[in-house]
Amino acid sequence: MSHLGYGCLMTVDREQVLRTAAALLSRKATATMDEVARAAGIGRATLHRHFAGRDALVRALEALGIQEFEAAIDQARLHDGTAEEALRRLVAGLEPVAGLLAFLVTENQLFEGDQMNEGWARLDARVSALFRRGQERGEFRIDLTPAWLTEALYGLIGTCAWAVQDGRVAAKDFQYMIVELLLGGARRSVER
Amino acid sequence: MSHLGYGCLMTVDREQVLRTAAALLSRKATATMDEVARAAGIGRATLHRHFAGRDALVRALEALGIQEFEAAIDQARLHDGTAEEALRRLVAGLEPVAGLLAFLVTENQLFEGDQMNEGWARLDARVSALFRRGQERGEFRIDLTPAWLTEALYGLIGTCAWAVQDGRVAAKDFQYMIVELLLGGARRSVER
Amino acid sequence: MSHLGYGCLMTVDREQVLRTAAALLSRKATATMDEVARAAGIGRATLHRHFAGRDALVRALEALGIQEFEAAIDQARLHDGTAEEALRRLVAGLEPVAGLLAFLVTENQLFEGDQMNEGWARLDARVSALFRRGQERGEFRIDLTPAWLTEALYGLIGTCAWAVQDGRVAAKDFQYMIVELLLGGARRSVER
Amino acid sequence: MSHLGYGCLMTVDREQVLRTAAALLSRKATATMDEVARAAGIGRATLHRHFAGRDALVRALEALGIQEFEAAIDQARLHDGTAEEALRRLVAGLEPVAGLLAFLVTENQLFEGDQMNEGWARLDARVSALFRRGQERGEFRIDLTPAWLTEALYGLIGTCAWAVQDGRVAAKDFQYMIVELLLGGARRSVER
DNA sequence: TATGAATGAGTCTTCATTCAT
DNA sequence: AATGAATGAAGACTCATTCAT
Q1: Which of B158, C57, C85, C143 has its CA at 20 to 30 Å from residue C1's CA atom?
Q2: Is B187 in Cβ contact with A138 (below 8 Å)?
Q3: For residues C57-83, average pLDDT
Q4: When comparing pLDDT for A116 and C140, which is higher?
């Protein structure tokens, strides 16, 4: 979806470059600036005009990722309706941001809890709160901690985004696969 | 935690070095050879004696990972008993290999389907067959494809291994969290 | 003498770099890439931009050396006039290439006859043919083989080039010293 | 003649190691200690037991070379008889030392005149004096300087030693080829 | 004494970055 | 604004050397 190919000649704006970079860097953290630039259809030096350096690019990715993650959370109205409905809305909103989200998760693996990006920690808490709300409402089991459910959500989103890109899962099934697995699991309910 | 320093005199064998490298590289793909060497308690040059270069190290990690993954699959006797029981055995057997597995998954993301490591593809097929068997036996739902369940298993194992290392999930809960989520999901069963 | 320093702003082209490298490497085969780069007035990384690596540099030197050696042979018209005249023209033409030639000779010492650079073997044959023509015309003695005379020519050119650089032989005497020794030898002719 | 091959198991004494090292290093200055050791039929560490390090090896080579060169000069009695006879004796005596001599020449290329090895400079002067004696006696031409004739002698010895090793000149012709070329040159004397 | 394993020093190579055009 | 050339910094790799056996 965000693959423009190498030959793209049109001027690519900053956000498009960031999305392409996120998709690449979340899959290959060792990608060089040259690879990032070519994936975005621009030259190395031009990439440096947009972002002062690799660090700046990474920070921009984090900022964009957190911004879009936050927007998705806001729009999902996590406090409205059942927790399940809210989760479905959240996953739907996160689909276009999956690449950025996977990048964020990978980046934050490197840090200990204290050094974790502040914005990320805040959003993390909001998602965690959603699962807690579900537990308090009796919708979700309480033997799986909100922290783990949150991590699992991120993991499944990243995994599914990769599976979609590699053609192992159909793009249209993205939300369904994640939500159904996360909420219902693989086991066939007896009486359902 | 795993910094033994230079003075460590005990002979660190090849496999120990590989395990340490897997744990490090699966979390930080950009780790330098120096970091890998120090994490393993040996010098850079000694690391190069064991593995001709970075590529050789990665290939050795892949080989070890596939070997241990295969051993875990063999020992789990995926064809015996219910699919659920087999899956529980498999997850239990994969727990010590989680770091290597996460590394393998990340590495295989870089390849297109055709170029995928042959050994990996074979193991992948065996896990996938387990989920298919569960579906055919009526244990597992059929609206979640075996391919997706397989991917999800890998994703949850990697995610949970990270969460354990970062202290967000208790080590003793590793198997439980993964299997319960994968099989039962977060939703509270009505009558259970 | 040839240290231009880092501040040198003029663009140093590929061929100039090669000539400098040949002069250095033919005298000091163990010279580092850094020494080569500084002798050429450029940085290490820039040297690597021009030549992918040390091997590539050596191959480029061989190619240039063979090319210039061939040009010198062509221009010497080895088949015209007496063999002695042709030899004088050849040595004159080889003077500016002496450094490259010495390098080529040294490099080709490393190979067994079969693996010898093809281009070099061809030029070698042309020089050898010149000495054979001289023998057939009665100009040259026949107890010294063309192969040896060819080798001796290379050896004397390299030796003299070094002697000139070290100030043991005057630069203007280069051709004279080589040709007179090679043709007439040190012995004083009786009746001359 | 001094090639023992790799499989040699007998204890190789210091001098034999040096001769093998000289033969190798004069042809490939970049040879590693490992290559030198294997050419001598011993292990790396054993080579280090014989010679404290690479520098020590090189110094030992220089010392042995100068010693043998001096012995050859002494035995050639350069002051006795005609210069030509003395030169023939000298070349005959230098034949077994050709490898070491080639190494010495190469090494001394690296130094400016002042830093030149003292022992070498002394021997150089004795050879040069031989050529001067030949000029003063009217045996040798005076338009070729003693310094150049000395250099040429070294160059031809090294060149011929290589040519012999590569099979381009017969070993039995070593002395003849060198002396005849150096003294008589390639030109056919008219009245001889 | 001889050897294989280990390693510090130093070279080779690459990459992020800057600069001139 | 965009590009190719140039380069300092840093990582990958090799080699001379040492150590334990």
Answers
A1: C57
A2: no
A3: 94
A4: C140
